Amino acid sequence: MAAAEEPRTFMTHGRFYEDEFPEVETTVLVQVNKVDDKTGAYVSLLEYDNREGMINIGELSKKRIRSMLKVLRVGSTEVCMVMSVDEDKGYINLSKKRVEPEDVPPKQELFAKAKAVHGIMQHVASNHELDIEELCNKISWPLNKKYPSAYDAFKKHVEEEINVWDEIDFSKPGQDLTELADKIKEDVELHMRRRLINSVLRLQAKIEVSCNDYEGIDAIKQALKEGFKANKDECEVSIKLIAHPVFSLTCMCRDKELGLNTLTECMNLIQQSIESNKGQFVILSKPEIARKEETKESDDEDSDEEGDEEDQDETMGNLDDAALAELAKAKLDDDGDDDTAD
To answer: What segment(s) does the record annotate as region Disordered (predicted)?
Structure first.
């Protein structure tokens, strides 16, 4: 009796790009797996099928490191620069300190686009029991070469500026998928329109707003209210008190430039108002795109870092008076402690 044929398995994860390894001096997005105080950090390259990379301790920060947890957290995602690649041994050395702050948002945006396209490829490959590399070889990787990204090509297709199928050859390279072409097109179209038409960006920034005058709380409150004057119908800012004097600003919109401009305008209005009342304004992080999977992680980090100040964390969609009342109470308590000390 012939042995039963084992079911064929299909790879549905894979890498985002055709090259198996990143190029030196390019940026990559990684997830931190392990932190070692003596050697550095071990990470997974999210765009390259989770290949392992390492950030040497000397490449973590330009500043002196007192605690690794202040620089990296296990599970966090970071933008790093590729320092060297040994394809034979599979070694990838990375640097975090060589990435400039202004290079982070563009990389995050590029990653979000590539991930959206790869997600479509994963769904379609799984539905048709195909190795994802076969599908990427036919669709996303050729489009990556011809356009800024496959995402941009898909977007033009959805907006009927081009027809991507005119540029796709299902017969090569690799496995001939011509017989499945119509079904694959239909499936890709479905997921493409769902993801691209309904995509909403979350943008964020972080600032410090403080005022030590007698009417300091009122000055802060007024400054934040001024910031809301930047709101647009398509883009509304919300402000969250992390722990005095730190506030996070977020907005949800479909247009990246609109979101960035709205947050920037909001910050400018807050700065003008608080400084006119002899207060202080500091930008901790410029407006940037926040990836969806980082939203909860970011909130958790804020919570962990502040510890006992967690109870002060209040959301201020329309400037929650309760949050500022808590802030005022905290300030009064601090003043009372100072008087006692005197």
So the answer is: 289-342
pTM above 0.70, yes or no: no
pLDDT computed for residue 199 by the predictor: 66
Counting Cβ atoms within 10 Å, is residue 165 exposed (0-12), middle (13-18) or buried (19+)?
Answer: middle
Residue 316 CA to residue 297 CA, distance in Å, equals: 20
- Residue 117 to residue 16: CA distance in whole angstroms: 8
Closest of 42, 130, 40, 52 to residue 90, by C-alpha:
52
CB-based contacts of 83: which residues, under 8 Å, 6+ apart?
Answer: 24, 59, 93, 94, 95, 98
Dist CA 35 CA 46 (whole Å)? 17
The fourth-level CATH superfamily of domain 27-99 is Nucleic acid-binding proteins (2.40.50.140)
Cα separation of 235 and 262, whole Å?
Answer: 7
For domain 201-341, the CATH superfamily is EIF_2_alpha (3.30.70.1130)
3-state secondary structure of 20: coil
CA dist 198 and 50 (Å) reads 28
Spell out the domain ranges in the chain: 27-99, 106-197, 201-341
Q: Measured between alpha carbons, how far is 329 from 171 in angstroms, rounded to an integer?
A: 70
Name the token pair of 166: 């005119």
**CATH number for the domain formed by residue range(s) 106-197:** 1.10.150.190
Q: Which residues of the chain have pLDDT under 70?
A: 1-12, 67, 69, 197-199, 291-342
Any residues with CB less than 8 A from the CB of 90 and at least 6 apart, and which?
Answer: 51, 52
Burial 251-281 (b: 16+ CB within 10 A, else e): bebeeeebbbebbbbbbebbbebbeeeebeb
